[in-house]
From TrEMBL:
Keywords: Membrane, Transmembrane, Transmembrane helix. It comes from Candidatus Kirkpatrickella diaphorinae. This is HrgC protein. It comes from the Bacteria. The chain crosses the membrane at residues 20-38, 44-71. The lineage of its organism: Bacteria, Pseudomonadati, Pseudomonadota, Alphaproteobacteria, Acetobacterales.
């Protein structure tokens, strides 16, 4: 089950929801969650890869690739947001849990946001 974490851009102050954990929406809807999150490059790339794998394996490989991608997508999306300048902006304990799940150094809970 995915867990939501609020992320804030350092310079613009724009807030976005990041998620970590298993993505049921990605498992059920394939590449469309990337489109709904305005992650267009990932949407196009995953669509092309899924079509190629589907054609090469007569659709059987889609199940395996979709399952693997459902485990990976939320973490991938959050890391892309971090690279774009977003920081974890939830409560201090939420930030520590999210940082641990994403494999990043947790922020100091005593420092101002």
């Amino acid at each position: 089950m995915a867990t939501r974490i609020v992320m804030k851009h350092k310079e613009t102050g724009i807030l976005k929801n990041g998620y970590y954990g298993f993505s049921w929406t990605t498992l059920l809807f394939g590449f469309f969650p990337a489109l709904f999150r305005a992650d267009f490059l990932t949407f196009i790339g995953s669509f092309v890869i899924l079509v190629i794998i589907g054609l090469c394996t007569y659709g059987i490989g889609l199940l395996l690739v979709s399952l693997i991608w459902a485990f990976m997508y939320n973490k991938y999306y959050c890391r892309k947001l971090l690279e774009k300048g977003y920081v974890l902006a939830g409560a201090p304990n939420e930030n520590i849990l999210a940082a641990s799940a994403l494999g990043i150094i947790p922020p100091d809970p005593r420092s101002p946001r």
